[in-house]
Amino acid sequence: MQDIRNKLKEAEEQISEVEDRLEEIMDAEHKREKRLKTNEESLRELWDNVKRTNICIIGVPEGEEREKGTEKIFQEIIAENFPNMGNEPLIQIQEAQQVPYKINPRRNTPRHIIIKLTKIKDKEKILKAAREKKQVTYKGTPIRLLADFSAETLQSRREWHDILNVMKGKNLQPRLLYPARLSFRFEGEIKTFSDKQKLREFKYSNTKPTLKKIPKRSSLNKKRNVKKKRLQNH
């Protein structure tokens, strides 16, 4: 019996050592994931800062840039859609380029044009005018003027879209702030959230039925999860 007790004690000590080691490993893994997330956020923030004064032009037909140059195309777009800006101080362009093909060089869709301005207020003024006009054109062809973001920020902004649509129907006046924060008016106050978890916490802490109808997660995420499960089953 004494031998059995000694062996049990040794086994318990070994199990305790393994548990301690496992806890150390899990703690180290948690710290590693936290560092990785911090580095990713820093890189994302760096890219967004680099792109802070950029305007992305989508839909200009291929070949126009070779004939006129990207700066000339941008100037023509401004003159065609926002003639009143011609009376204001000249908008200075720091750099203009066409984004190279990354996936399929034979695709029919035109490449995006990136315009880097020297002043962020010029970018904001142009994008505001584009939103108010609703339909921007180049030689009569519909095009789009958008802010240029990192791929991670673009994805974060897309994930707010379904919630934005619901809030618009509830007259909450939602907006997407730079770079990917949701803002809306609720009971006379402006509420701002940087991620969905904080929005969920605010929603569950509030008894108003208007907020209760906001979806728990985006339909985009649901579709992605369904697609993932199908791939796993195959």
TrEMBL record:
Residues 52-148 form the L1 transposable element RRM domain. GO terms for cellular component: ribonucleoprotein complex. GO terms for molecular function: single-stranded RNA binding. Residues 151-215 form the L1 transposable element dsRBD-like domain. It comes from the Eukaryota. Keywords: Coiled coil. One of its GO terms (biological process) is retrotransposition. InterPro entries: L1_C, L1_dsRBD, L1_RRM_dom, L1_trimer, Transposase_22. Residues 1-28 form a coiled coil. Residues 215-234 are annotated as: Disordered. Residues 12-48 form the L1 transposable element trimerization domain. It holds the Pfam family Tnp_22_dsRBD. Belongs to the transposase 22 family. This is L1 transposable element RRM domain-containing protein. It comes from Sus scrofa (Pig).
